[in-house]
Amino acid sequence: MILTPVQTFIIICMVTIGTMITRFLPFILFKDIKSNNSYINYLGQVLPFSAIGLLVVYCLKTVNFRSSAYWIPELIAILCIIVIHNWKENTLLSIGVGTVIYMVFVQFVFM
Question: Is the distance from CB of 93 to CB of 100 less than 8 angstroms?
């Protein structure tokens, strides 16, 4: 199915509006609530860790342990991420380096 330029523009506008609503809705809903709300503070403390856990489970759900070529790149990348994050305490650096290491192993070492 080929979309016309008008249909493409409408889809882009709808996606933009949907994204803006999900980004701005919490600020609109909680604008009168004080910043020391215990529930909001609790969510701010636990959601980042649960999101990381969800991403780890999602990324490793299809790992096949039958052959070492299928799980060693993931293991090396995870260990590198852990070491770099504990050493530098920089999330973006550890994720970026872990991604590069994983891609190098998958593309060039464990073909």
Answer: no
